[in-house]
Amino acid sequence: MLRGFYTAASGMMAQQRYQEALGNNIANMNTPGFKADQATIRSFPEMLIQAQGNKQLPTKNNFKVPFNQTIGSINTGVYVQEFVPDFAQGDIRETGIGTDLALVQVNVPDENGGLFFRVQNEAGEERLTRNGNFTIDGDGYLVTNQGYYVLSSTGEPIQPGGPHFNVTDTGILQAETQTVPLGIAYTADVNGLIKEGDNLYAGEAGAVPAGAEFNVRQGFLEGSNVDAARTMTEMMNAYRSFELNQRVLKAYDESLGKAVSEIGRLG
């Protein structure tokens, strides 16, 4: 009975975590460049149950021999193994704001490859992002909305001096005083990236390889790739699964209560 109790409880916990991920996706539905999280739910590893005991032999000294009897396999429920971002391209929408940049991925040589803007976080470490909702700070640097520097192809912060600059389709920023290639990085496997806060990703990335095709569109933003209708449907399914496990848990709890109160009283 306790095994079923733990199985139902683990199912409730898994659906709760799944619901939290879906809620985060909905909350970021309007965040530029946001990539929806997908949960992977798996069962706990199976365990082989064996009965151990002693068998008494019909001898003068009643000699006992230990034995193992295989009963079968069992697992004790499910859990959320990890959350994996979906790196599919979001919709491109026009904003008309010159500091907004959309990175449109046309073709990459690797099946799981991806292109990103290079930025510098508050600790001075390089990170990757698809959120091109940039602005100009008080010192004239091109930064993200969180104040992180947007980097050039050489890894230096870009300082156009003001919001009046042009960006070509190939990612060349042209200001009055300088011409700077935007830092656009490529990773062969986006699934190896680690998702951090503020729409940033950590992981290995290098220069754009030959064969990779992309466009940088100024005055446009890549929207999130959250499918609102699908996400709401998944939230309802997760809620129903949580309720079902809750009912099972309640039934086990009532059975345990009867075992303690009624069966114990008979003894």
TrEMBL record:
Similarity-based family: Belongs to the flagella basal body rod proteins family.
Flagellar hook protein FlgE/F/G-like D1 domain: residues covered: 113-155
Keyword terms: Bacterial flagellum, Cell projection, Cilium, Flagellum
Domain Flagellar basal-body/hook protein C-terminal: 217-260
Localization in the cell: Bacterial flagellum basal body
Name of the protein in question: Flagellar hook-basal body protein
InterPro entries, per database record: Flag_bb_rod_N, Flagellar_basal_body_rod_CS, Flagellar_FlgE/F/G, Flg_bb/hook_C_dom, FlgE/F/G-like, LlgE_F_G-like_D1
SUPFAM superfamilies: Flagellar hook protein flgE
Pfam families noted in UniProt: Flg_bb_rod, Flg_bbr_C, LlgE_F_G_D1
Flagellar basal body rod protein N-terminal domain mapped to chain residues: 5-35
Origin superkingdom: Bacteria
Transmembrane segments: none
Species name: Oceanobacillus luteolus
